[in-house]
Structure formats: structure tokens, C-alpha cells
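Anyone able to model this chain together with nicotinamide-adenine-dinucleotide?
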Amino acid sequence: MVTARRIPVATVARLPLYLRALDELALERIATISSDELAGRAGVNGAQVRKDLSHLGSYGTRGVGYDVAYLVREINRQLGLSENQRVAIVGAGNLGQALARYGGFPARGFEVVAAFDTDPAKIGSRFGSTVVQPVSEMATVIADEKVSVALITVPAAAAQSAVDAAVAGGVRSILNFAPTTVSVPATVALRHVDLGIELQILSFYTRRADETVAAAGPE
Ligand code: NAD
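re: yes, here you go
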């Protein structure tokens, strides 16, 4: 499977890892890096890095390596992060508040500019650098504030209606944290984050490791 720009999906998933490593290198004022060094910092192998970066038209210079500033620019461009993306949080509860306060988003090009909830007790309250607004205002605010991304942090039962309202406002992408599947039109990008699923997968590997130790018997 490939994206519209013909960059493989698996490469797209690794670009943020390279970007995080490259941002660190730029802070350390390192101007060029070999594919093997970048691989070590990003936690992948060197051949993979060379193949991934070739999809960006970047082949590095023999004996010199890759230009860090160029790669940062190019990966940001490919990820659509050349300009900050404006984010709305739908569901101003515990998770929504934690995300609104997370300082790592602005550094990665995402600015939380709006928050919505149905609870009258929360509407009007301060929420990070914004104020919670009623969901009835969502479509208008999303359009006026040029919000492109919605984070869905409502209970599972309310997730589809929250997604529909965000889509009606014109968001281009949805990151759904509610533990349920939701659907969006083909023109809207959708991803799902579920830490419970990550823990369940970890639990599988822990159990398998325990079984291997048990099968090996006492030393
Ligand atoms: P919470 O009860 O503290 O917050 C939910 C908020 O959504 C409340 O303020 C509620 O008033 C609001 N709400 C309800 N219906 C709404 C609607 N239609 N539109 C807008 N707002 C609405 O819950 P929480 O602990 O913040 O969890 C929020 C969601 O995130 C839950 O679905 C939870 O299961 C999920 N969650 C996911 C992860 C993850 O790893 N993905 C981790 C923690 C929680």
C-alpha cells in the first residue's frame, strides 16, 4: 500500500522517528549524519534508513552523509508540517485536559486552539491556552479557527457523533482515543490510539517470555 505521494505506508510511519532524531541532532548543531548513525538514533537499521530516505529523493553524499537541515525540512514538508497544524480537542475530561497541557505538541508543529464538551459545568472553563466551548458551536469554531485535526477524547458511546461534528466543521484528520471504531469519509484521515491495546500486546509477550523460562526449567 502507498500514499498519494507514493511513499510506502511503513516509511511514513518511520518518518516521525527520523524527524525526532534529526531535531535532536539540529539542537546539538550536528550538520551531517551517516545513515547508520541516524538509524541508531531512530531505532531502525541503516539499510532501512537509506531506502526510506531515497523515497524522499535524498541519497546522502558518500563519505559525508545526509544534510540534517535538508532532511528536517523535507520530512516536515512530506508530513504536511511546514506550517503549524491547528488542533481541537473534543471531550474536555481527564484525557483531553492532559493532552491540552502536553507541551510536546507545539514543538512538533501542533497547536491546540479549541476544546469542546457537552457538560455545562465545563463549558467556559479554562483549558490549556483555550476555553471549553459547547459542541453546538463546533462546526462554526472549527471552520473559523481553521482547525485541521480533531482529537476525540469522549466516551465510546459519543465518539461517532463527536467525529461527525468535527468532520462537518471541515477537519482533515481525526485522532480517536475513544475505545471504539468510528468511520469517516474517504477524504478524512483517521488514526486510533489505544494504550489498553498496547498493554494487552505487551502482556502477550510477557506471558510468552514467562512460558519460555518455565519450559527451560530451573538452572
Ligand atoms: P472523562 O469522563 O474524564 O471525559 C470525557 C469528556 O467527554 C467529559 O468531559 C464529557 O462531558 C465529554 N463528552 C461526553 N459526550 C460528549 C460529546 N458528545 N461531545 C463532547 N464532549 C462529550 O473521560 P476520560 O478519562 O478523559 O476518557 C475519555 C475517553 O478517552 C474515553 O473514551 C476513554 O475510554 C478514552 N481513553 C483512551 C485512552 C487511550 O489510550 N486511547 C486512555 C485513556 C482514556
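The mean pLDDT is 92.
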